[in-house]
Specification:
135 residues; alpha+beta; NADH Oxidase; 18% strand
Length: 135
Amino acid sequence: TTSDLEDLKIRAEEYCRLVSEAPALLITLLDRERSPPNMSKGLISLISVGAALQNIRLAARTIGVGCQDMARPIDTVEGEKRLKEILGIPERFKVVSVMRLGYVKPGAQHPYKSNFRMPLKHLTHFNSFQLKGEG
């Protein structure tokens, strides 16, 4: 509907504003030509990048810096391609993460809420795997 398109446009403009006004953007890359020996498909490298990003988030938090993942620029093949063109990133690199960093204003709220995260009790198992919380 027209209302949905207008809402989408407003959200897109807000998203662009957040990106353009970010004091710092951290673009994390994975070099596809470098991987540990005997490792398949770069899984260990990807896990290592995730661990490094979590350490960055934790360190930032201790000094009052907020971090927000900005998935939209790399959610699509075309989006990643465009970002790589803008930044001059060679083809062999995979853009793994786009994160904005900055000092959080006191009392600031995240503009978008999501119920995407599952409760921990649906993700933990004791002695055997059991499907929980689906449906």
